């Protein structure tokens, strides 16, 4: 599984706040995560909705 697929799964199934997902799509920021040289960049540690409460 490549990083793009992992990120997609995080976004789709990860119970993320809508505001956070919107920020990922703004200016195609998700591309920076996918192209990051590390195998699993820190951006993959995405906050969940329940962490906001």
Fold blueprint:
Layout: H1 3-13, H2 18-25, H3 30-35
Question: Explain this structure to me?
Answer:
The protein has a domain at 3-39. It has helices spanning 3-13, 18-25, 30-35. It is globular and about 30 Å long. The model has no long low-confidence stretch (mean pLDDT 77). By secondary structure, the chain is an all-alpha fold. It contains three helices and no strands.
- The number of helical elements comes to 3
Please identify the oligomeric state. Answer: single chain
Low-confidence stretches: none
State the helical fraction: 40-55%
**Biggest sheet statistics:** none
| Overall spatial form | globular
Short description:
The protein is mainly α and 53 residues long. The protein has a domain at 3-39. The chain is built from three helices and no strands.
Looking at this protein, list some descriptive labels.
single chain, 53 residues, mainly alpha, globular
């Amino acid at each position: 599984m490549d990083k793009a697929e992992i990120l997609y799964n995080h976004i789709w199934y990860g119970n993320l706040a809508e505001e956070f997902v919107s920020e990922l799509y703004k200016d195609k920021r998700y591309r920076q995560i996918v192209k990051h040289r590390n195998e699993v960049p820190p951006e993959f540690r995405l906050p969940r909705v329940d962490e906001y409460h």
